[in-house]
Amino acid sequence: MLRDALLKTAKELHPGYFALVMATGIVSIASSLLGVMPVAWVLFVINLAAYAVLWLLTGVRLARFFPNLLADLSSHSRGPGFLSTVAATCTVGSQFVLLAHSARAGLALWLLGGALWLLLTYAFLVAVFVDRIKPNLEEGLNGAWLIAVVATQSVAILGLQVAGQSAGRAPGLIFLSLALFLLGSALYLLLISLIFYRLAFFPLTPREFTPPYWINMGAIAITTLSGATLIQNAARWPFLQRILPFLDGYTLLFWVLCTWWIPLLVALEAWRHLWRGYPVRYGPDYWDIAFPLGMYATCTFQMHAATGLPYLSTLSRVFACIALLVWALVFSGLLHRLWLGCRVARRRWPAGG
Predict the structure, then answer these.
(1) Residue 20 half-sphere exposure, CB side, CA atoms within 13 Å?
(2) What is the DSSP letter of 202?
């Protein structure tokens, strides 16, 4: 029955499934920045539907399967996925601001995203800090931890976009966004050191090199986007003008770092699937590949707009096309999974009466 299928899906919902919304939203935004508005709007509509469905399933899980949700929140491997709700909320808010030109919806989603960031960041960290039984670094740490950076920077970026629509609130919102940009930068430097150590000094199997390691690049790409957005808002707050040289250099450093990650991640994917023959099967973590690619296209476009550096515009267009292709492949995997689930459900319904 449909009710049973809904309950089963809610019970087993991966905490990081909101990466679907993150990926769809950022590819939509990248398309809009490059002027491909029909694609941007189609993805916006799909994203609103996905966002609503995922919150429905999360609400059912909270009401009916709270112990499962609590166990995931205190898990070193699954807990960071909860922060994808923050990034997804702020990504949808950015779509409302940039596509629908709705500052009110953007502000509402910024407030929701900020509240979720406060609640989930500290709930997860306290849960894993006080847990008596902890995994070792090899088992407990992966790229998903960097969603903490993505969530922090997403709140900063949406705050800046809302500030651009409201002159009265601009200084306060820009200050909060600057603080979150710096916090997210520090979190990235802290976490990426541990992740690099894990990759370099512990055995790595094809099974362990999961798609969330692409967030190594995605987290620094969204940090670049946050810095570029601050640069573009420098005229709105005198203090930003005073630290503009710092922002220029810091943001360029982050763009270089995220660019450096891409060939390495591609090589590791080739090792995993081509050399070691690990099969490609759809899972919610594959959205963690589509999102960083879309974010790289977007941050590169905004770096070009903020700094005027040559060649970045062409590079952003190339990666926007790549991100859209990867998004389409992962989305087709999702549709195939749903189709198979419907076939299985139809076989079971007659037996259930």
Answers:
(1) 25
(2) S
